[in-house]
Amino acid sequence: MSFSNEAVGTRLKQIPLFAAIKDSPENLARLQEICKSRSVASGHAVIAEGDVGSEMYIVYSGAVEIKKRTRAGDDYTVVVLRAQDNVFFGELALIDDDKRSATVVTREDSEFLVIEKRDFLALGNNHPQIGLPITRVLAQILSSRLRKTTGDMLTIFDALVQELQS
Predict the structure, then answer these.
(1) Angle at 101 between CA 38 and CA 13, to 5 degrees
(2) For residue 84, which phi and psi values (nearest 5 degrees)?
(3) Hey, which CATH number is domain 5-165, 2.60.120.10, 3.30.450.20, 3.30.230.10, 2.40.128.10?
(4) Is the separation of the CB atoms in 17 and 137 below 8 Å?
(5) For position 2, what pLDDT does the model report?
(6) 152 Cβ contact partners less than 8 Å away, ≥ 6 residues apart
(7) Does residue 1 carry a pLDDT above 80?
(8) Which residue from 125, 123, 107 is spatially nearest to 115, judged by alpha carbons?
(9) DSSP assignment of 88-110, as one string?
(10) For residue 141, what are the contacts with CB-CB under 8 A and spacing of at least 6?
(11) What is the tens place of the pLDDT at every residue in 79-97?
(12) In what order do the strands lie in the sheet with 63-69?
């Protein structure tokens, strides 16, 4: 599978992570150069929780389920991501070298644009006007998730305290 340059450029403009550079054809073209394409058949894992990853995925077509494993070993679906929602996953791998926090399984035949960490870092080093705005958006995403997690933990803590007091 390969996408036309025009189609990839149009898709990248729609992804919120790249909003700060979407109006610069030159910067988008440089970003596009580091994107690779990958197809995954329905029902197959794209990434697995616990594996070390080094790539981020943009859902070009199709849909995926983000799944987590409980401490009891049961899988549950956290969210379903569909291409038409301009979504991506695995973005933490662009920043750290840690294990994947979830498993991602295709719900239908799907196509992805893939950005490797080494390519993203090289792009940012050579063209900070591209890398810095994208990194800022990544930081905002992480901050938002941290705030939500903190709020969720407080809710659980409050519920536990109320249960113990009852």
Answers:
(1) 45
(2) -65, -10
(3) 2.60.120.10
(4) yes
(5) 66
(6) none
(7) no
(8) 123
(9) EE-GGGGT---B-SSEEEESSSE
(10) 17, 91
(11) 999 999 999 999 999 999 8
(12) 45-47, 103-106, 63-69, 75-82
